């Protein structure tokens, strides 16, 4: 995907802005408007889909494409919402700042990089990544037990030595751990950054 930033608020010749709803901070320019990156993802109860614009002919608000997720939930996504492109989407308690780590209240010691509390990331001094935004909709609800059962991880973990000593009753303990959907947008960069730095490439 060939993506550029606007210069002085305008897209370069041969490119067009992905959305008229983005401000100068979030605007990006592309050569093909049909190949714009996704800037918002929402899990929405079917009864609430009407609150979003799913009609491409309506141009007064960002357009969302929709896809059935379950019998009660619809997945909506848009390339027109005022945000930088979404680069990461994950399910968890709260995303850690330190790469490759995750937070879990009950876990087996050999589960890779799992912590009861996110470790402090040495460069930022933060435990949690502030770039992640939690889905506010009640449509997406799950728990640690459901995710491990669905992925097939649960049967592998349960066969490990002393698993129940560390985790206790996995149905009760892991079902009590609510997991949420989180999305992370591309970090903002100044459109004039490359012009103000001689060593920028």
Could you walk me through the main structural features you see in this protein, from its secondary elements to its overall organization?
This protein is α+β, with helices and mostly antiparallel strands. It folds into two domains: 81 residues, no CATH class; 98 residues, no CATH class. Helix content is 14%, strand content 23%. The strands form four sheets. Strands 7, 10, 11 and 12 form a four-stranded antiparallel β-sheet that branches. A three-stranded antiparallel β-sheet has the order 1-3-2, with no helix packed on it. It has a three-stranded antiparallel β-sheet with strand order 4-6-5, with no helix packed on it.
Which helices and strands, and how do they pair?
Elements: E1 3-4, E2 16-17, E3 29-30, E4 40-45, E5 65-68, E6 73-78, E7 86-92, E8 102-103, E9 114-115, E10 132-134, E11 142-143, H1 144-151, H2 153-158, H3 163-167, H4 170-175, E12 178-185, H5 193-196
Parallel strand pairs: 8-9
Antiparallel strand pairs: 1-3, 2-3, 4-6, 5-6, 7-12, 10-12, 11-12
């Amino acid at each position: 995907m060939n993506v550029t930033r606007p210069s002085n608020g305008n897209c370069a010749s041969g490119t067009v802005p992905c959305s008229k709803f983005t401000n100068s901070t979030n605007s990006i320019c592309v050569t093909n408007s049909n190949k714009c990156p996704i800037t918002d993802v929402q899990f929405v109860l079917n009864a609430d889909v009407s609150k979003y614009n799913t009609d491409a002919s309506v141009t007064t608000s960002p357009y969302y494409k929709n896809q059935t997720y379950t019998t009660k939930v619809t997945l909506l996504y848009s390339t027109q919402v005022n945000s930088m492109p979404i680069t990461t989407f994950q399910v968890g308690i709260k995303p850690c700042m330190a790469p490759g780590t995750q937070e879990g209240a009950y876990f087996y010691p050999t589960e890779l990089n799992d912590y009861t509390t996110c470790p402090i990331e040495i460069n930022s001094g933060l435990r949690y990544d502030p770039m992640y935004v939690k889905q506010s909709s009640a449509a997406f609800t799950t728990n640690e037990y459901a995710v491990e059962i669905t992925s097939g991880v649960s049967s592998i973990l349960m066969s490990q030595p002393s698993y129940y000593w560390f985790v206790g009753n996995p149905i009760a303990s892991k079902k009590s751990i609510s997991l949420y959907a989180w999305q992370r947008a591309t970090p903002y960069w100044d459109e004039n950054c490359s012009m103000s730095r001689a060593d920028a490439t």
